[in-house]
Amino acid sequence: TVLIGGGIDNFEEIVHELSLLNNNKNLKIFIVCSRRTPSEICNCLLNINSFTYVWTFHSNDRNPFRELLAISDFFIVSKDSISMISDVLTVIGERNLNIPIFLLRSSSTTKKKHVDFIEQTKTRFPQSVHDFDTAESFVTKIKQDQLPKYSFPNEVLRVGKEVKDILLNSC
Known about the structure:
- The chain has 171 residues and is an alpha/beta fold.
- The protein contains seven helices and six strands.
- Strands 3-2-1-4-5-6 form a six-stranded parallel β-sheet, sandwiched between helices.
- Helix 2 links the parallel strand 2 and strand 3 (53-55).
- The termini are far apart.
């Protein structure tokens, strides 16, 4: 899933690399644009057949953002969207998953609040957050199957252990 906030530097390069990646790996690539995404980027994405689904803020369709958080194997997020990055990290944290998040350079991420947030995020989630300045660098990682593998936690075992611990500690 690709989440675009206000915009991404080297947009044409990223679209090209994602299209190639989709053709090589036969992936389902979903793209969600925020209300701040420039209309020329949204229009360009809507006219490309390589992607499974493109949602823009001006679409009449329901925003699939929450559903995509639940089913995606990796995320590509523009660095300028602190809220999108936070939402992805929240879902990953809640589910104890190791899903990679590729952060892409954006011209508006030079503000101190963005720089500080990105640095704190990389420090707190070193296994998940990957910072890239070019599309080629993260696409290469995906092409080479270097994405971390994850599995959903077994909730039955976790809850059973908690119940057992409670029972043992109450005696």
